[in-house]
Amino acid sequence: MHWSRVHWSCPGRVRPKYPLLDDPAGSARLAEDARRRLAHGDPAEALALGRDLHWASAGDPVRESLANELPVGAYQALGRPSLAGIAQAHHDHRDLRDVIALGSRQGMSDGS
């Protein structure tokens, strides 16, 4: 299932659109599908939907929660705890430009 579409808003820049994410029931169905696939060993949907929800959440607490849950769970399932920590740090500190300043204090220095 593919939920995002791309359009060109200006030369050299791709901006995603989220038609299915505008509907709370649609978001819930997509999240449930991503969770089901993740539980069966396929983290791809959780990673992609989590990324899209991160950009499309616009302060919506349900979308923001899913934007955290899905990629963190996917990275954990892939055996990448450092990437899960980075995803968690991005969620916890959305007001920062990046999370590099957090460094190894968040357990992200083992290179995974």
Secondary-structure map:
Layout: E1 5-10, E2 13-17, H1 24-39, H2 44-56, H3 61-77, H4 81-92
Antiparallel strand pairs: 1-2
Distance between the termini: 29 Å
> How many domains in all?
1
The coarse silhouette is: flat
> pLDDT under 50 segments (min length 5)?
1-15, 106-112
Mean pLDDT comes to 77
Could you give the order of the helices and strands? Answer: EEHHHH
- Neighbour order of strands in the largest sheet: 1-2
Number of helices: 4
- Strand runs, count: 2
Helix amount: 40-55%
Q: Describe the sheet with the most strands.
A: 2 strands, antiparallel
Structural class: mainly alpha
Quaternary: single chain
User: What Rg, in angstroms, do the CA atoms define?
Assistant: 15 Å
The percent range for strand residues is 5-15%
What would you say this structure looks like, in words?
This protein is mainly alpha-helical. It has one domain (5-106). Helices cover 52% and strands 10% of the residues. It contains four helices and two strands; from the N terminus they run ββαααα. A two-stranded antiparallel sheet has the order 1-2. Strand 1 and strand 2 form a beta hairpin. Helix 3 packs antiparallel against helix 4 (81-92). The model is unreliable at 1-15 and 106-112 (pLDDT under 50).
